[in-house]
Amino acid sequence: MRTQPYGGKLFASEIAVILLALLFLVPFYFVAVNSFKSFSELLVDTSGLPKHVEWHNYQRAWEVLHFPRALRNSILITALSGIAMVLVSSMAAYRLLRRPTKGNRLLFTMFIASMIIPFQAIMIPLVKVGNWFHLLNSIPGIMICYAGLGASFTIFLYHGFMKSIPLEIEEAAVMDGCTPYGIFWRIVFPLLKPMTVTVLVLQSLWMWNDFLLPLLVLQKPELQTIQLATNSLFGQYMKQWDLALAALVMGILPILVFFLLLQRHIIQGITAGAVKG
Length: 277
Fold this sequence. Notes:
The protein is an all-alpha fold. Helix content is about 75%, strand content about 0%.
């Protein structure tokens, strides 16, 4: 294959993409820089570098927000909800794909159709149903909510990816006496690793940064996530921007590291299902 010669158009395109990337990084600059400023300096100069680095902001935010507790809650909710989503949705997608009955096709269509419904349209009924089943103010309760809300998109991704798995592999396993559960867990599920990583990354980003659902479901202070704890710094008459920005930086770092470690699997998982399916 002949490569395109490096010319003026390609150079201009690269410059435009770099400028666009820098534009998207501007909010992160403001958050990181202002987290090291005192409250008075932050109000006077928000764009400049700090004259005196205030490491004390992070210490105060750590103590005031009970950050270890909020971090533990966020990690627990995100990790367990993601695992539940992967296990249930992968099995559901496998059944819907390998048993293409009219009922399964209708059920898959309903899953896809539910993806266009905004959360704001169902949040009040969700809270009422959660109250009936005693799911409010509990970590398992919000995990069930997240697993249900993310099931449609996860099933859609797994369904497309499983089309790339040859059916002959499963037929050979049946000839060897493998049970249906053995076929899925021993043969199919290990082949889903790229999509499983993709699902975990995408859904973890959503759950980690979500504010509205924890606000509705978790009312007890000891169950607050990082987002709810940070919101407590913004009152009717006082906004503690110096502590809030430090808390935001500490809250961003864990999920950012997680994303950077696994980002290469995202495109691999999505394109495999789209191209081969």
